[in-house]
Design goal:
With 305 residues, the protein is α+β, with helices and mostly antiparallel strands. It contains twelve helices and 14 strands. A hairpin with a 5-residue loop joins strand 6 and strand 7.
Amino acid sequence: MTRILSYNILIGGTDRVDLLTKIIKSRQPDIVGLVEAIDQQVVDALAENLGMQYRLSGRGKDSEGWQAAILSHLPIVQTRTYTSEVMTKQPLLEVCVQESNGCQLTVFVTHLTADFSKAWIANHARRREVQELLRIMSSRQGTPHLLMGDFNSLVPGERLKASSFLLYVTDPNLYYRLKPSRSIVPPDLNFVLPAPLQILKPFLEFIPRSKVPCTLLDTTDFIYAPRGGIELLQKARYVDCFRSMNPSESGFTWPAPLPSGRVDFIFASPELAQRLVASDTVEAGEGVRTENASDHLPVFAEFSE
């Protein structure tokens, strides 16, 4: 078996190494894709705690930018990083490993644009990023490979529990309990509202306390929730591992204290998807609740040899 875990560890995971270690260790993964792995000391500590080797994507042109990492128990054969004017959130990290059966598996880790306040402009940006991902991954066509990470987008047809998300972005304590720097502004209404709609903030702050507006907000999510790009992966025959194994479960991954939408994914190529035997989200591990370790739930997938 080959076990895969995709995990956004929230702005480097600084001061949360022990919690993150327990969450990851609970699934005994062979490969871990880390998003927002901007603190190399944390990555190094996680790798040491888990007995794994690792590779980093680097920060691209922006020294303050995001970074991905891959931890692996399996031998690493090759590593490559892709930077692009299209992929602005972080470089794409590609790592090829050798599975226990001697075959090679290629793993990509991505983090797509958020910019929710830019609405359709951000959706268009994510579509362009996915098109670039597909162009890069075309070199692996016909071989087992997977793409995982934080896509900041919903699958077409899936829902956003917007009332829960609204409660999260109006309570900064839910974010700061995870110990990011106080200099970092937590996701708030400015983070999700286009500038012309920010006059609605007083009304939106009231919604979580009233049942009828909550219901209305939840049932109209198709108007405003981000859904750009994932349909392109589906069209290219990549398999959404969680949804393939859990056709009727929500699988919400973010925000962890009040899960409201499924934005973290493991997509398997058609060749690899034939080996998929399990996939789920991780809500707790070794006595640690996931919402105490990061603002995202990890996604897990297991493949037979």
